[in-house]
Amino acid sequence: MRRMVFLGGLLLLGMGAQAQDADSSALVYQSTAEKLMSSDGKLSIGGYGEVHYNQALKPDIRKNGKLDVHRMVMLLGYNFNSRTHFVSEIEFEHVSEVYIEQAFIQHKINNSIQFRAGLLLVPMGIINEYHEPNTFHGVERPLIDQKISPTTWREIGLGFAGTLLPASLKYQVYLVNGFNGFNGSARLNGKDALRGGRQKGDESYISSPDLTSRVEYFGFGGLNIGLSGYFGNTESTLYDGIDKSDVTALAVADSSVVGISMLGLDARYTRSALQCRFQLYYTSLSNTDQYNVFTAVDGQLNNLGSSMAGYYLEAGYNVFHPFGNIKSELIPFIRYEGYDTHFTVDGGLAKNSSFNNSIITSGFSMKLSQGAVLKVDMQFLKSAADTKYSKELNAGIAVMF
């Protein structure tokens, strides 16, 4: 892990040195929601979708492939006037499941400050805000953005966002409701990490708000560096209805809560045909020893670790770039990724080596246009408990408009 942090730091320094000499303009990324709000007219419509084929490859065992309309999404925005906007994102997953991924109002206070309130994307890392399939390589999203930062991660809250052009900074800061850590049973564990605690605006509850923020620096041409944070406690249904003077009941409820401090560092670099990404997450969890004991089932401790970490390095190159008359893009890419949801453990919990995984993903994205892409990749995954990599072939189509 330390080696990957060191390599990531060298990558950032190298990209920064190159970016100072690059002719490309500064990379100020706009999310899909921000593009809708900046469009002309009252009503804005957008969408994206992806269809996947996943085939596990076993040398001695025959496996059926999986075909899935993974998601189809409609984006609807309405501009009440030049200052006040509304954005919504309605998602259909696996044909039969319906979710709301965003639904918020933005009001422009001045050119640098916008107020937002509603169902907001938590601004952790790259993928959670830029999760549309045309914005990343690989058929599936990186695993660290499923395990460590549980994309698509959205909660109800309010806060401020904006761009400080003189300083080349873009920022977001929100108060949001926290993860559902306990509602009669544990919602967090070592295998799925924090993913099962997302409340998603679905009859959410709150005991105390959490803080999340992100700042991006785009002062170098072609290079965008981001720093993200999330701090607070999980929520617990045990607090509901407790007499404030009942010390015993409060102590029991406290045992069902986990403190979360998550940091993310990322970089995106584009120069001519070259595309590079770096992502690093570190999450510290407190009170996990009490939480694991309190949420034990039949004497079996829950297995939530006291810290989690993950990273990836990715590079791609558009081989059609030298041929200026070809409008399509063919981008071979490779990504090396690792995550450990038992980076450290507390109490009597033993580290589970199957939660420490390394992943190599390599393939290509064929962009027929910026809004339509064909994807194929081969993924190799191995945990510290395994001796060999498992293999999976993935293919898919994706659209975005």
Low-confidence stretches: 16-24
Main sheet attributes: strand count, strand direction, barrel closure: 16 strands, antiparallel, barrel
Q: Which fold name corresponds to the CATH topology?
A: Porin
Strand content: over 45%
Lateral arrangement of strands in the main beta sheet: 1-2-3-4-5-6-7-9-10-12-13-14-15-16-17-18
By secondary-structure content and strand pairing, the structural class works out as: mainly beta
H/E element string? HHEEEEEHEEEEEEHEEHEEEEE
Instruction: Give the C-alpha Rg.
Output: 22 Å
The termini sit apart by 38 Å
Q: Could you name the CATH class?
A: Mainly Beta
- The CATH superfamily is identified as Porin
Mean pLDDT: 93
The geometry reads as globular
CATH architecture: Beta Barrel
Explain this structure.
The structure is a single chain. The chain is 11% helix and 49% strand. The protein is mainly beta and 401 residues long. It has one domain: Porin (Beta Barrel). The protein has a 16-stranded antiparallel β-barrel. About 2% of the residues have low confidence.
